[in-house]
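Q: A reviewer asked whether we had any structural model of the full assembly, not just the individual parts. We don't, so I'm hoping you can provide one. Inputs are below.
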Amino acid sequence: MSNFPMPFIHCVIMTLLIVSFSSLAKRPEFQLRLNNHLFYPAEIEIPENTKVKLIIHNQDNTPEEFDSFDLNREKVIFPKKKAIIFIGPLLPGRYDFFGEFNPNSAQGTIIVVPNKLAPDNTESEKNASKSPSNSAVVKEINHVN
Amino acid sequence: MNCRVLTGLLRIISISLAIIFSHVVVADGVVVDKVYHPYVLPNEREFEWRMLSHQNDAGNSLGQRIAYGQSITENIMVEVYLVGERDSNDDFGLSAYEIETRWMITEQGEYWADWGMLFEVEKEHKRDIWEFTTGLLFEKEYGRNSLALNAFLIYETGSDIQNEFETELRLQYRYRWMPQVQPAIEIYVGEDYTGIGPAFMGIQRFNGQKQLKWEMGFITGLNGDNKDHILRLAIEYEF
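A: Here is a predicted structure for the entire assembly that you could use as a starting point for your response.
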């Protein structure tokens, strides 16, 4: 049997670990509500090449599962609870998401915009802590049912 | 989880594995199986079937496993396996049982990369052979590209086998082209074996949490045999 080059693997794993946790700067936060199986707002603009924290408040009495192939995310949101989803860094474009349990109604889009057009959510973060429904989002569209 | 605690924990695990790894030899069974991802969803339940057909100069071998898995907390999933193999008389029968636990350590996307761990205990049917596996699961995504890496430390023990530590490394680069078709390249190292080959995987969603995942890989051994191919298939039904 041959010896496995484990010192090399050790170095690789340690490097990955150090890099993984080396960047822990505070990330921009954006808030969403899930109410009556609809996301509010249904569209959010975030800056390009930036990791952001999405906080989703499920105000319904049933669980929902945030799902997005575009964003490569799946997350269960328990009723009357909030869930945190980290997304990005992303290139400019539209990234759709939906609720797996109510895919026909619970739909939304993350719109990644170039940095010069991106919203400054510093003030919005303060508001978001006061009222999730009036949160850090820049653009809210009305649902048409 | 507190980040400092998490970092410390991962470093301790990594250093421990590295110290042990540097003193062990590679394993002596079939390495090609499945590349794990460090993610767990709450309320997740699944049935799984895996098949592995190995053709080399010594002939053809076939292994299959069926499993039931369920997440028991928001970040821990337990899966129980029944493993079957075709023996030298071409009879297919139960060969082992296995219990596996996957632990999602970091929230997906929170850090530069995502981390998890895997713990596995396998007992061979009718033979006193036990296998204890501990592994680090790593995944880094960039846009539609994902790189997953598994590093396993295995301890084999029992009266029917010589006690020994073994190691395995699995690597998968995947392009998330569309949900149903995601091409990948997989590399397996361990057990005096190095293999590489293309793989395809995909997912089809149904109502609610119901979804069907599939994987297929064709791995070629690079150990000098005239013929050394492995076909692996996996189907997972989540509900």
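A: Points you may want to mention in the reply: DSSP finds one helix and twelve strands in chain B. Residues 3-169 of chain B form one domain.
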